[in-house]
């Protein structure tokens, strides 16, 4: 898994964005993740790429037995431990692909981490192996329409009221380098077909796909330019699958 979050300058800029209550995460992705979560009472949960622990904090309010948060970034785990001290929560600074647990989980979640994983098929199989029977896996990643282009300038400035997002090289899966927060960030583009079929081939049953658009929060708090950009194309996709 690619780790840029232990670059201290980048992480400082990232915190400003991520902790902004009107960020795309908080307005667009997080509300939809929360909608998909099952009843967490008395459940065991693994959060892959737990970051600073925001989703862990939310899930903790639903009285699970145990939550394990794992993140490759030591900066993320340090902040998560500062934010949450609870006997029902354990944070681990580790790469999920090297993670080994004797425990199986009722629920595994991951928010915007899987587009940093090179071996997607291996990661999906690992999740499957760590879930209990009928366990639930929910994860989000950047939408393939958003990650496909190889262009440095993501928006096409044609004569129109609004800019248009570029879509090219869609069927060419692989590495994408994106300029974000003054840094080159490496991610992995995969088609919707690859994302979904890999889950099915691992043995999961699909329960729900969400392509994120505007939410009540974004419509209330975002400006009209951002609202139109969100309407133009989905930023994220969220999968909810069940182990059979």
UniProtKB/TrEMBL annotation:
Keywords, ordered alphabetically: Methyltransferase, Transferase
Keyword Transferase (UniProt): yes
Methyltransferase domain mapped to chain residues: 45-135
Keyword Oxidoreductase: no
Gene Ontology MF term list: cyclopropane-fatty-acyl-phospholipid synthase activity
Enzyme Commission number, as recorded: 2.1.1.79
GO biological process: methylation
Name of the top EC class for this enzyme: transferase
Listed name of the protein: Cyclopropane-fatty-acyl-phospholipid synthase
Naturally occurring in which organism (per UniProt): Macrococcoides canis
Gene behind the chain: cfa
């Amino acid at each position: 898994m690619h780790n840029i979050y232990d670059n201290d300058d980048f992480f400082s800029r990232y915190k400003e964005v991520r902790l902004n209550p009107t960020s795309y995460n908080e307005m667009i992705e997080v509300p939809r993740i929360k909608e998909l979560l099952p009843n967490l009472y008395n459940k065991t949960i693994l959060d892959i790429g737990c970051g600073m622990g925001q989703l862990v904090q939310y899930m903790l309010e639903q009285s699970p037995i145990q939550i394990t948060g794992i993140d490759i970034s030591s900066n993320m785990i340090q902040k998560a431990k500062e934010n949450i001290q609870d006997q029902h929560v354990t944070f681990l600074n580790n790469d999920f692909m090297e993670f080994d647990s004797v425990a199986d989980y009722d629920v595994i979640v991951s928010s915007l981490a899987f587009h940093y994983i090179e071996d997607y098929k291996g990661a999906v199989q690992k999740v499957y192996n760590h879930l209990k029977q009928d366990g639930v896996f929910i994860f989000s990643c950047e939408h393939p329409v958003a990650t496909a282009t190889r262009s440095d300038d993501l928006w096409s400035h044609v004569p129109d009221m609004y800019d248009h997002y570029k879509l090219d090289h869609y069927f060419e899966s692989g590495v994408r380098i994106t300029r974000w927060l003054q840094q080159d960030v490496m991610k992995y583009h995969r088609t919707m077909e690859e994302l979904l079929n890999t889950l099915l081939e691992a043995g999961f049953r699909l329960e729900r796909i969400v392509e994120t658009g505007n939410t009540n929060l974004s419509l209330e708090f975002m400006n009209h330019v951002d609202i139109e950009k969100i309407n133009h194309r989905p930023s994220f996709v969220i999968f909810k699958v069940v182990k059979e």
